[in-house]
Amino acid sequence: MLVSNLDEILSFNEEFVSSQSYEPYRTDKFPSKKMVIVTCMDTRLTELLPRAMNFKNGDAKVIKTAGALICEPYGSVMRSLLVAVTLLKAEEVFVVGHLDCGMIGLQAAPVLAELEKKGISKERMENLRHSGVDIENWLHGCQDVESGVMESVNLIRNHPLFPSHLMVHGLTINPVTGKLHLVFDGREAKNL
């Protein structure tokens, strides 16, 4: 039987709201630092990344995806970026991958094997393949963190709907120390 955190979350939330513990987090929907960050969903970055980059609640839009990888030019991550730089007034993009990422060298086979253990039949996987879904490519990671960051940076910069005057930077972060490493400086790209 699966154990859920739902009851604990709802109970905590009741107290959180009734005690007005939300007050320190109040802000509006526009990022005050006018930036949007695409980063990994890794749990080590939840609090470390904002501290390491010096932003707090309300400063930035944060889009999380496995490996900070944008795999589809017309998928939900790119759509979120376009909304952020248009309707939500973000003016600068930071793609931040991290060392020791599970997407480095990821191949589809282990993911599919785990899905099969969780009850997804091989027949269902084959049906997807027959309907044109390239599962192996879709579940593929990156060679190394820097190349993954650059794949996402280049997809954004070269997207036909992305405003070319906006800066797109690429960085990596050490998930232990928070040390940032610059992979691509979007300011220099504007001078090319």
UniProtKB/TrEMBL annotation:
Zn(2+) binds at residues 40, 42, 98, 101. Belongs to the beta-class carbonic anhydrase family. It catalyses: hydrogencarbonate + H(+) = CO2 + H2O. Binds 1 zinc ion per subunit. Keywords: Metal-binding, Zinc. Its cofactor is Zn(2+). The keyword Protein biosynthesis does not apply. PANTHER family: CARBON DISULFIDE HYDROLASE, CARBONIC ANHYDRASE. This is carbonic anhydrase. InterPro entries: Carbonic_anhydrase (IPR001765), Carbonic_anhydrase_sf (IPR036874). Its EC number is 4.2.1.1. One of its GO terms (molecular function) is carbonate dehydratase activity. Coiled coil: none annotated.
